[in-house]
Amino acid sequence: xxxxxxxxxxxxxxxxxxxxxxxxxxxxxxxxxxxxxxxxxxxxxxxxxxxxxxxxxxxxxxxxxxxxxxxxxxxxxxxxxxxxxxxxxxxxxxxxxxxxxxxxxxxxxxxxxxxxxxxxxxxxxxxxxxxxxxxxxxxxxxxxxxxxxxxxxxxxxxxxxxxxxxxxxxxxxxxxxxxxxxxxxxxxxxxxxxxxxxxxxxxxxxxxxxxxxxxxxxxxxxxxxxxxxxxxxxxxxxxxxxxxxxxxxxxxxxxxxxxxxxxxxxxxxxxxxxxxxxxxxxxxxxxxxxxxxxxxxxxxxxxxxxxxxxxxxxxxxxxxxxxxxxxxxxxxxxxxxxxxxxxxxxxxxxxxxxxxxxxxxxxxxxxxxxxxxxxxxxxxxxx
Length: 383
Prior knowledge:
CATH topology of the largest domain: Butyryl-CoA Dehydrogenase, subunit A, domain 3
Shape: globular
Number of helices: 11
Oligomer: single chain
Radius of gyration: 21 Å
């Protein structure tokens, strides 16, 4: 079925992204997985190629084009190349962190931060999760108490993507610890601030090249000029950006499922059992037929969500539907791919094996499948 989501300029951009991935990421992904981190130079290279600045206004070094279809092209090309662990930090920078810097910043903050974000000189992260609180953000204990022209930040965060590489960390804090949601604010912590320490680069099941870290704050003095948005409105600011964040995760989920399908279709035509390719077995054909159908149906919904986001009409519930369904599909697709690859599917040098390990986290970060269903259920029942 022919997709109608993209226009000529998006396909031209796809060629740029594909070439970038082939030259700058694919030859190095195994070494980066082993190292547990991608080099900062990757961000500079992506910035030089224009991958970070599509939505950033021209005066700050971007293209000034607000069209999530360009973001989705990046997701698709990264998934097709099987480089999820390198892709996550790059897409977090553009799809998840950038909207905060575009919509919540003052003119002075834009001048200070956006050019570096566009060039890849300033790497971004967002720090919400704390030990033991999971999805209950209102229970966070990290505080930012006003002291003259500064906020004094104390606390810690965990599971922070780009945690080692990040220069600018959008940090959810309690400016009023006596309140729950209404006590939350967002401040930007910067590399080198005294008292801002990074813990270990966490050892994960998958996504090995993605630096995921613990962050610790001990009397970190953050200028009040680093406040993002309004005091006490942090929870509202976070939820306003969640639809795009979840759509980005969903977009990668569909693209990763399609990549798993493509790799498996190719493999089963080469692998033999009982003197014939396993593609000749009815079970193989039926399982792949089911997966192909699910991917195409999910793709149609995802494409509709992208257009809704562009139009400013994507709801939290629709984004939640996309996120949970597409990441669960990603899990089923990679698992089937491993099964039909047989023992070779369990080998890390095969893309399907690495994709299977990388896929497990997508049903957790950005809001677990269970939380997504709760969002949808509450929307349905008006609660």
